[in-house]
Amino acid sequence: AGIGWQIAPGLGLGISAGLLSGSQRIEREFISHTNRTAFENQQVKIDREYFGYDARIGLLYMPAKSFSIGCRLEIPRYAKVAENYGELNRLSTGNSFDTTNFGILKSSFSGALGAALQLPFMTISSDMTFRSPVSDAPQGSSQAGWKEGIGLGIEVPLRFLASVFRCGYSCSGFDISSMLIRWDGTGVEPDEPLAVLRNQHLFTAGYSLFLGSNISLELAYGYLLWKFSTSDPAWQNTITEAHDLQRGMMAVSVRY
Fold first, then answer.
1. DSSP assignment of 29-97, as one string?
2. Measured in Å, how far apart are the chain's first and last C-alpha atoms?
3. CB 230 within 8 A of CB 239
4. 13: CB partners within 8 A, 6+ apart
5. Running DSSP on this structure, what letter comes out for residue 178?
6. Which of 10, 14, 52, 166 could serve as 62's disulfide partner, Cβ 3.0–4.6 Å?
7. Average confidence score pLDDT of the chain
8. CA dihedral angle for residue 78, residue 25, residue 178, residue 239, rounded to 10 degrees
């Protein structure tokens, strides 16, 4: 749910609040065909359920019709977590076990600062994002440091087609997780040692077509990529992960 106010000419304030509910399944399997590595033909299955809240505050100021600035602050999120953890060791079944854990998942303050300049032939926007360290995060973990990002966007109206074309680019520090779980029995578990090989780069494009004064069609595409490596004293080699994510969106809006 959200609500906004125009508290003065050119100045607006908005707040939103919502419930967080979700689930997560993680499956990992390490197999050694030669039985000469540190892996023990191990299979791990993790099922988690979350329930909590999310709250945000936004402010927008337009000192002139062609220029606007704004900011957003995200209040730290909290959620209860229930986890079923199972570990199967095919080479030593005596080391296999299942357990149930409960804890609290939380984040830190995060937000963004942005500005937009509206020219007769295009609109240019930029923003800076940040995420503060999560309290109680182990030193050296992904959640212990600040994370920043920058972005740039351009919107060009195509007046002969009653439509708008958009494109953008952003770069942000890779964050394996912006949230931290404190388990009731064991506390916070440190992350695996992680080396960032490529920060997150996001390329986007979009198109809006206005069909009269009440109907519009929106199309958008985004391409995100990042790369990192993890290591552990029990492993003989470092594991490198290169990720890319493509996402498309289509929406029809009707105003009445």
1. EE--SSS-SS---EEEEEEEEEEEEEEEEEEEEEEETTEEEEEEEEPPPEEEEEEEEEEEETT-GGG-E
2. 21
3. yes
4. 4, 5, 7, 57, 58, 59, 60
5. S
6. 10
7. 87
8. 160
Tokens matching residue 175? 């964050």
pLDDT reported for residue 231:
78
Q: What's the rounded Cα separation, in Å, for the pair 42 and 59?
A: 50
Question: Using one digit for the tens of pLDDT, what is the confidence trace for 34-70?
Answer: 655 555 677 889 999 999 999 999 999 999 989 999 9
Residue 248 has pLDDT above 60, yes or no: yes
Per DSSP, the residues of 108-158 read --EEEEEEEEE-SS-EEEEEEEEEPPPTTPPTTSGGGS-EEEEEEEEEEEE
Contact predicate 130/151, CB 8 Å: no
pLDDT in tens, 76-91: 988 999 999 888 876 6
CA separation for the pair 73, 152 (Å, rounded): 19
Residue with tokens 């519009």: 216
Under a CB-based contact definition with an 8 Å cutoff, are residues 111 and 71 in contact? Answer: yes
Q: How far apart are CA 3 and CA 16, in angstroms?
A: 6
Q: What would the pLDDT profile of 157-174 be if each residue is shown by its tens digit?
A: 988 888 999 999 999 988
In which residue are the tokens 């490529």 written?
Answer: 198
* pTM tops 0.70: yes
Tokens representing 235 are: 């492993």
Report residue 216's pLDDT band, with 50, 70 and 90 as the boundaries. very high
